[in-house]
Amino acid sequence: MAALAQVVAHAVPVTAAPASGPLVFRGKGFDTCQAPPLTTLSAWGHSGYGAVGVYYGGRGRACPNQKYLSHRWLTGARDLGWRVLPIFVGSQSPCVLAESKRGYPIGDYPEDQGTDEGREAVRAASALGITSGSPLYLDMEAYDYGDEDCGGTTLAYIRSWSAAVDRRGYVPGFYSSAESGVRHMELSRRAGVSDLPDILWFARWRVPASTDHERALSSGAWQPHRRIHQYAGNVSETYGGRKLTIDRNLIDAPVASIE
């Protein structure tokens, strides 16, 4: 696991991460299905948010056609002072709960599929100028991890994806529901499973925002600076006359380095 380089102050633009490890952001951020234009990010400069989640790759994305997302967009966001959380929505668990995600199942060879999609995640990130040492967050929507066969298939895919990302010099992160994928990761950690993601991004809405008080996780697990709490979703906010529908996040975790 790479050492953490530093905690980034809210007003300091992200630059390339030092060789000692990824940069970390502590503060509020949001994610939204379609990366907004830079003019909107500029208008949101005094919103109190300092990081933006970007759905940059993966066959399971709800918004696969990103109108604005490019290397130029990423460098522009960086220069405006925004931190970036790169999100990859690949294949989904065979027992995923959301009907909209059932068309992208993990198949009969989850290890191979996870490896292939981990490599894809790295290639897509690199093509956008997201450098090695950056985190890549795998989005796995809520699934029935208690189903032994399905849970095993899903875990095999996640482990292979994480290992492939790690081997290529990036930091594997993982997003899921706190009571689903995140609890599954915690149970796997307690069981001594290897190749788990290095960062956890857990969704638990309608509770106070906190990276330290998630009941699905042991207090010392994925610490320090390895957690993101998505604490609200599908809310609309307007700043500078620009409206977005977003999910709200509290972040204490690595962010992308962009060159």
TrEMBL record:
Residues 42-250 form the Rv2525c-like glycoside hydrolase-like domain. Signal peptide: none annotated. SUPFAM superfamilies: (Trans)glycosidases. Transmembrane segments: none annotated. It holds the Pfam family Rv2525c_GlyHyd-like. This is Rv2525c-like glycoside hydrolase-like domain-containing protein.
